[in-house]
Design goal:
By secondary structure, the chain is an alpha+beta fold. Helix content is 22%, strand content 21%. It has helices at 20-30, 36-47, 56-59, 73-82, 103-119, 167-172; strands spanning 89-93, 128-132, 185-194, 198-207, 215-219, 223-232, 235-236, 245-250, 263-266.
């Protein structure tokens, strides 16, 4: 929450019913991203289908998102590598092994997954394999009593110091990708008209910074305007940094003038220019 120069963008991948949404939902809950009353509501709704879905409901709010789809984790891993993802963290569901938390099965999974990601061009040495329980929350934000004695943590070449022992530690130690810092770029996600304020575009900072008073140009619509103010999570920002999802008030622009997918940049410093995509 607020301005954090070390924010990361992560995606959780895996086939349907692999526990992907349960992992994400439970992690959000454990990190106080949702209150207990909301979880109890989701628990009641999930009980109508399958009780173990209560943390899935945190993420999959729409009925369409709760339906079954086909897909394979291998295909998702291949797609991630094809799109240039360089850092992977694998959550190994140790409560689903027989018996639970058995070291032999954990090592078998490491061997099988490492062989595949090496085949598609990824280095297994940079991948962390974290033993977790999506349902119980074991070793997700913090170590649990169920953590097996044989697991001493995981280290990869990009990390110095103590081994990672939880999923959250592994995610927090992901190295941020390098981006240009000499020209701001903001990818527009939506545009709102807010009473008493005016037009407020919302987007993701891809490079550099965005500050109040800056004159920006939106491409490809070629609309130029001034940034009057910006905020994130209802907190005013003196500047929006790389990775921030921000809303910013602009001057003399209608909600119909700019659109989802537009790119904003500094009008005085190599503004984005395009005629088609």
């Amino acid at each position: 929450k607020g301005k954090d120069p070390h924010q990361h963008c992560c995606v959780f991948i895996g086939h349907v019913d692999s526990g992907r949404s349960t992992v994400t939902g439970h992690l959000v809950y454990k990190c106080s991203g949702i209150d207990k009353r909301r979880v109890e509501t989701f628990k009641k709704e999930a009980a109508e289908v399958k009780g173990s879905f209560k943390y899935v409901w945190v993420l999959d709010k729409l009925k369409a998102d709760r339906a079954w789809y086909s897909g394979q984790t291998r295909e998702h891993a291949l797609l991630a590598c094809t799109l240039g993802v360089k850092q992977l963290v694998v959550g190994v569901k140790m409560d689903s092994t027989e018996p639970p938390y058995i070291q032999k099965r954990y090592e078998e999974i490491i061997k099988e997954v490492s062989a595949y990601i090496k085949k598609i061009g990824h280095s297994p040495d940079t991948v962390a394999f974290m033993p977790i329980s999506a349902w119980n929350g074991d070793n997700m934000p913090e170590p649990s009593a169920n953590r097996p004695s044989w697991f001493k943590g995981w280290k990869v070449p990009r990390k110095d110091g103590c081994p990672w022992t939880t999923l959250l530690e592994a995610l927090e130690c992901i190295l941020p990708p390098t981006h240009p810092t000499d020209r701001p770029r903001l990818r527009l996600k939506d545009v709102y008209k807010i009473g008493g304020i005016g037009t407020v575009p919302v987007g993701h900072m891809e490079t550099d910074v965005l500050k109040p008073g800056m004159v920006v140009t939106f491409a490809p619509v070629n609309v130029t305007t001034e940034v009057k103010s910006s905020e994130m999570h209802h907190e005013a920002l003196s500047e929006a940094l790389l990775g921030d999802n921000v809303g910013f008030h602009v001057k003399n622009v209608s909600v119909k003038d700019v659109h989802h997918g537009n790119m904003a940049g500094d009008s005085k410093n190599d503004p984005p220019i395009s005629h088609c995509l």
